[in-house]
Amino acid sequence: MKYHHEKIEAKWQQYWAENQTFAASNNSDKPKYFVLDMFPYPSGAGLHVGHPLGYIASDIVARYKRHQGFNVLHPQGYDSFGLPAEQYAIQTGQHPEKTTRENITRYREQLDKIGFSFDWSREVRTSNPDYYKHTQWIFIQLFESWYNKNTDKAENISTLIELFSSEGNAKVNAVCDENIASFTATEWNAFSSEQQQQILLQYRLTYLAETEVNWCPALGTVLANDEIVNGVSERGGHPVIRKKMTQWSMRISAYAERLLQGLETIDWSESIKESQRNWIGKSVGAAVTFKVKNHDEVIDVFTTRPDTIFGVTFMTLAPEHELVAKITTLEQKAAVDAYIEATAKRSERERMADVKTISGVFTGAYAEHPFTKEAIPVWIGDYVLAGYGTGAVMAVPCGDERDYAFANFFKGTNGMPTIKNIFNQDISEAAFNEKSGFEFVDSDFLNGLDYKSGTKKIIEELEKIGAGNAKVNYRLRDAVFSRQRYWGEPFPVYYVNGLPQMIDKKHLPIVLPEVEKYLPTEDGQPPLGNATTWAWDSVQCSVVSNQLIDDVTIFPLELNTMPGWAGSSWYWMRYMDAHNENEFASADALKYWENVDLYIGGSEHATGHLLYSRFWNKFLKDRGYAPTEEPFKKLINQGMILGMSAFVYRSEDSKILYSKGLIKDKNVHPIHVDLSCINDITNELDIEKFKAHPLYTDYANAEFVLEDGKYIVGREVEKMSKSKYNVVNPDDICEEYGADTLRLYEMFLGPLEQAKPWNTAGITGVSGFLKKLWRLYFDDNGSVIKDEEPTAEMYKSLHKTIKKVTEDIENFSFNTSVSQFMICVNELQQLKCNHRAILEPLAIIVSPYAPHIAEELWSGLGHEGSISTVAFPKFEEKYLVESEKEYPVSFNGKMRFTIKLPLDLTAAQIEEIVMADERTQNQLQGRTPNKVIIVPGKIINLVG
């Protein structure tokens, strides 16, 4: 009876599907365990062998937990809105829904072949209306909420309206827009409905505002900072500029401190936590106001070093700061305008990262020092960002390296005074940026003070003259929530006199309309501007033709769509109750599952998805919809599986291709080779296949210079990518070696969190191991299982493995488990073990890693049903306790033979047995040893 992986795997995959083996229950007496993979986007390229790495790890844990008696929720679905599908639609004219559906079908086929224990009955797709109606509902809840600093949570907007109606806004302690005008209760009650709505927009957790955004003209949409790499769009590499647009935004900044503190309560890697801490960017300092000379304007700054205020030499505004246009003089206008235009082409991330380039322009305007009344020149510079702090910096070159470099770069030019030094330290070569080891000089009432006492004193004095106060600042900015594209969640919003109105929950979802073109309209509106039926009838409560818009009862709908992170910011909760039509999840389901126990996915989402998810979860907790503060208890970031690229080497000036060993001292150009053209084990190029490949038709007549009659390609480890032709399809591995081999091999490659190269040549060893495992249970004639009592050595081998595998899964060290399986099978083979008492538990502990073969072995042992919920074997220490010791017996330090003795013998008893042994007598030849050295459990040595 041979091991036919293809038949076994197809059989059990069908069994699992038909029997809903892995369906979780929302009503169970078992303890719950929720294990989740990061939401995949179904790209047209399908999966390569790097993609399943995290899925295999999570599946091992899910299966192990079922064996341990947990009710395991291990769902899967698709983050199916996104720019790639829309770009493909623009290029081909195919509806994004069609290509997305086809891609999902392909993904599902590939995932099923690998044998994951997903609960497919709970599958979700963010692009399905029955899913995104709940995303629309959450958006409405955010719109209907404000953040009360007194209670430190989000509350219904009705509580704010009550305060306005009874007290006005003077005492309201809220997260809101800056510089909101004060009003009394009487004034509020006298405002028109439109005036009240305008004011409430300044407090709502999602709001409309004119915002500086990353605009990509080629893609026709706004991009998030994490969608931009090196100043261009991650998708397509298109230029990105800064532009002001009216956008929906989310007040994530309201949660800055809670997002920071929550990191202390979750089991995430320190590197991810640190990324989030840096992104949130908490700073303690002071807000300071500088008047602008000859203007009614003021410049507000936030500084962590208010104690250095007497060292302010100049001020710098972000080029996009709203004051720039108001205060720039006529003489400086041309230079300022040119600088602003140039800066708009650089992303914020690029500007933050570029610490070497120094650039700026003097505006011609001056600010007034709040204490000395001296004139301070106002510059603009792209190292200051409009969205960080106030978009303005009080520059103290004597105490800050960047200000020091800026002042020295523009030294002697119009608008750049000599650097003021306020420290009793030398700054001739560099700024002094320490917070100790100095006293203030030339600093008026701060002279002689140090950092701590100076900071306290300056804040007191700023408050006295009304020019500043102590403040905590965060780098975290409100998240732009609008996208100018088609393939995304429609907003449940229509406009009355330009003011947003929410559509009632009972009329959701507002379904994405059909359009002829997926590009922005000719007059620059988003793609939904192409829709002809995209207006809201407020009487009939339905979407109707645009031609019926009368701004009386029928109004225009929002033309933007939500960003890619909308649907993925709450999806784990939908899995808890995926078929609930009325709510995103019932209170009972949410209470039972609470949150995700184990989340596995890439570290690239540290400041995108992972931060937004925490924000939405905290908001839903505030409003009574989510049971926990944090969504994901434990997070593991899997490493990347790298591709082993192959290269041929073309001479620079001709079509001669040199084999790898012949390129030394030659001027050659490496060319990526599709892996289908090489022998992955010998690295030999199949020249005829290479010539016939459509990618390499230019080399059909090339000259190949061989070594020993072969063309050997070069190999290099790189990111697995279609563009490098080094992608390995998991389908091919499953077909040739089996899914269980793929699963074991991916775990065997190395620690889960580390990057590791794929090498198909190594997979044969894992394949051979499974065949060895099979032969413990079956020979050519069928089962070889015995019901005899196993030997102590057999038990020892089994329990070593139970102990190791249990510890490894608990510690997520899956690679060393595979090694232990191999050791165990080799030992049992040598012991000729076919014993049921050993092989039954062995099948169970192998099951999380190689589930198909484990199911077949379990069935072959005579059991009905699936192995998936059979209790995991428990490690018993007694089987590893040694009762005997094989002693080396030495004569004058040279070992001559070994003897196995019980470990509980005394030294005298050991000596008596050894001296009586025939082999000892042969060595001594009648002599009596001078000394017998015995250390029980270690050595026996006869001397003389």
Describe this structure in words.
The protein is an alpha+beta fold. The longest helix has 19 residues, at 96-114. Strand 32 (778-779) and strand 33 form a beta hairpin. Strands 11, 12, 13, 14, 15, 16 and 17 form a seven-stranded mixed beta sheet that branches. Strands 26, 27, 28, 29, 30 and 31 form a six-stranded mixed beta sheet that branches. The protein has a four-stranded parallel beta sheet with strand order 2-1-24-25. Helices cover 33% and strands 20% of the residues. It contains 29 helices and 37 strands. Among the domains are: 25-129 and 564-637, 3-Layer(aba) Sandwich (Rossmann fold); 282-474, Isoleucyl-tRNA Synthetase, domain 2 (Alpha-Beta Complex); 482-551, no CATH class; 641-719, no CATH class; 884-943, Ubiquitin-like (UB roll) (Roll), CATH 3.10.20.590.
Write the layout of secondary structure elements.
Layout (H helix, E strand, L loop, with lengths): L4 H15 L12 E6 L14 H16 L3 E3 L9 H10 L3 H19 L14 H15 L1 E4 L4 E4 H11 L6 E2 L9 H6 L2 H9 L4 E11 L4 E3 L4 E2 L2 E2 L7 E10 L5 H7 L7 H11 L1 E11 L5 E6 L10 E4 L6 H4 L2 H14 L4 H6 L7 E8 L6 E6 L11 E4 L5 H9 L41 H15 L2 E7 L4 E2 L12 E4 L2 E4 L32 E3 L4 E3 L9 E3 L8 H4 L2 H6 L10 H7 L2 E6 L7 H14 L9 E6 L3 E11 L4 E3 L9 E6 L13 H6 L10 E3 L8 E6 L10 H7 L2 H10 L7 E2 L5 H15 E2 L2 E2 L8 H19 L3 H17 L5 H11 L4 H10 L23 E8 L2 E9 L4 H10 L1 H7 L6 E5 L3 E5 L1
Parallel strand pairs: 1-2, 1-24, 13-15, 24-25, 26-31, 27-29, 34-37
Antiparallel strand pairs: 3-4, 3-5, 6-7, 6-10, 8-9, 10-18, 11-12, 11-14, 11-17, 13-16, 14-15, 19-20, 21-22, 21-23, 26-27, 26-28, 26-30, 32-33, 34-35, 36-37
